[in-house]
Fold each of these.
Amino acid sequence: MLNIFIIDHRPIPRFGIRYLLNQSLKNFQLHDFNSVNEISSRINLPTPNLIFIGADPELPGIQILQRLKRVFCDSRFIVYDLETKAGEGVKFFRSGAHGFLSKLSDLDSLSQCLKTVMDGKLYLDAKDLTMILEEILVGSKPSQRSFRQFTLSQRQKEIASLFAKGMGTSGIAKKLGLSPSTVSTVKAKVYQKLNINNVVDLKSTLAQTRSDL
């Protein structure tokens, strides 16, 4: 029996993957989680053969993948990331993913991805591959792009700027009248879109895109 994990706090994507699995596989057991931290809180979990990584309110997808790879090194990983631009999917493969789906992917792509990954191969949608090739030809790095190219919202820009100035989550939440959890979620989305992992990288990116703020 295959053991499959889904990590996504959104019920609709989880339902869609569950439906696809029911159509494609016969003998499997599905475990779904709202966040990666929820995995450690459950006991007697089996070792997963396959892990779907979607949206986590606490961590960006790349950090979830890196964290789980250390624990489940023999599992197969499919990342479906609707926030990251398709051309940036290569970063997930570098971190150990076996399949990547972006906002350009459709249900047929998801089905083909599942089959390919379960056959022991890597999967990248043709549309995503085209985007990656364009990135190579242009020769630009994600960290050098402007905020407009990453389509950050005004709120995301505002919170990113405050973090870069040295403010903490609680201070930003108080200043903007938001909950700390909301600020943390926005921060995770910003890190994900800018392909960065810490405040130092954030400051560097802001310095390079100052004219766009």
Amino acid sequence: MIGIIGGVGPLAGIDIARKIMEETLAHTDQEHLPVLLSSQPNRIPNRLEYLMGVEPRNPGHAIAEISMELEKTGATVIGMPSNTAHTPPIFDLIQAELAKQGSQVRFLHMIEEMAHYIQQEHPDKTVGVLATNGTRNNGLYKNTFEKLGMACLQPSESMQTKVHEAIYDKTYGIKYVSSPVTNRAHDALVAAIQELKHQGAQLGVFGCTDIPMALKEKSYNGLPVLDPNRILARALIQATSPEKLKTDDH
């Protein structure tokens, strides 16, 4: 059974649950896969603030506890739709806590799943990544991709500021105004994609699960883009019921 760590952020958990359904071969309600979504944002400290040194509590402790609860309820594989929570200071603690508890659940790593997908479906392409400051500064995508011999581009410092603000600004950022997303946030992200293309990117990756709420197309300015939430959704299906996975058209 698939388990989802929700609440990081809350809309991302709902989004990946929907994408699991969209990527599943099913013609009736009963043919869909069982999915457990645990969305408890009140229990999980802010990931970015922890990485910045503002929040003293490592979110990995709470995430590991919720993972154990999902496992006890029947989950055999778990996905977490949060890029920042996969940075080593947090994700390594989750893995250590689960091992200490004797957990047998398989916890997929979102960024590694994205890297493997690109290697398989888009080999030898230069990738440009849009992400929050926390994900970028920890080198999450860049380090993962470059270890596998994949070229990884990032926005300039000035453009990175605009990307981060498009997500976190309290007046127009996606985390604060998401239904609908503001034009200012949308346009800033599209401009960042254009810059990545000018740098030489042949493929774009949304390194924040909030970005697909603003950018829903499969390409922008002629640059194909990938949504880690959808790639993780497909990996979760592959891990539990590969015969139910739709043919990839992304």
Amino acid sequence: MPPRWDLLIRGGTLIDPAQGLSARRDVALHGGRVAAVAETLASADAREVVDAAGALVTPGLIDLHAHVYDGALPIGVHADRAALVNGVTTVVDAGSAGWMTFAGLRDYVIPTYRTRVYAFLHISATGLATVRVVPELGDIRFAQVEEAARVIGENRDLILGVKVRIAHGGTGKGDQANAREALRRARQAADQARVGLMVHVSDTPIPLPEIFERLRP
């Protein structure tokens, strides 16, 4: 008879928050899915056996803040090379693309990855393409609410929310008025599209309590 499972991971410490489990377990997989979990499973029932003694076995991890627009911006990384080797199977791109540049991420980058990718859309039309050169929201005209909401509506399978970087490098050094307007427009776009809002707040030119007032539970 052919083996019951494609892969057996033996002897590792299984961490499964859904079951409140942190214990030594064997895990069998078949057809890309977990087929069995037990204290001991027979090696003869699997095509391949991996000895995980001394290692942690977890469900695929999720990285909630990544930049995987590889090749399009200086901080972009290749999702598979950065994520899969670290046990991460899903990443959320945190605003690498804006409404003008999202199609490139969607059509030419994400399809090349094995890693599952979701995204937050930057309120800046060009996303982070100019990072390390000029602030992406140094000119507030780049924050276009209607266009951002439109692109979110057209890509609800991938886009989870709106991203804005309220930092000197994002809205202009010391420019409080610009930072406040960028935050206001990001909140407006998120509300209009009925999605969440992610705010980057390192070295912010406006007080944190003021930013918190724009957030939602």
Amino acid sequence: MDHLLLPAHRRTSLGKIVDHIRRARRVPAVVYGHGVESRPLEIEAGVFSKLYKQAGSTSLVDLVVDDEKPVKVLIHDVQRHPTSQEIMHADLYQVRMTEKIEAEIELQFVGESPAVKESGGVFVRALDKLKVSCLPGDLVPSIAIDISTLKTFEDRIYLKDVKLPPGLTPLIGGDEVVASVMQPRSEAELEALSGEVKEDVATVEVEKKGKTDEEEVVESTES
């Protein structure tokens, strides 16, 4: 990945006053870390949005605050507006390159499973991300997992089968299932499932009708 640079400015506006920062198309942010004093910042919204798409939460970024020297950070958390999805705030974590951190790495499943392609099975992801411990310099954007080993419905990919990039230590056990293929439902199973749905619908309609009849009786009695 290309060198990632994030320019920022010191922020003096705090609390509800930050609304004018957002109206000026800037993102309120804070940088903090182990042994690092927390500092409020503001970042150009367009610049931050573009960089966040590239970096995600597992790529090191050089943060430059005004005329200071760059420091290595990770984008730890991003808060968005619930409706517009506009970025409202960002947390930046300043790392020490000699100190291990914990991070969640995205899993990317590559290749084709014979159990899916030839037998019509359904691919099942047991994990989407893997939590690891590592030095900041060992972070990777994602971990590729080849699913071509899933040849039957009994096959499983366990974490211990995955070749992890150097320096990454998983924080879950090696016997954890990462992926598998589920056998497709038979016609008999689909028909049985369809019958259950019809029965449920019929039951709801009967209950609804019974409730309506009771309401009519009550109204008649009251009148």
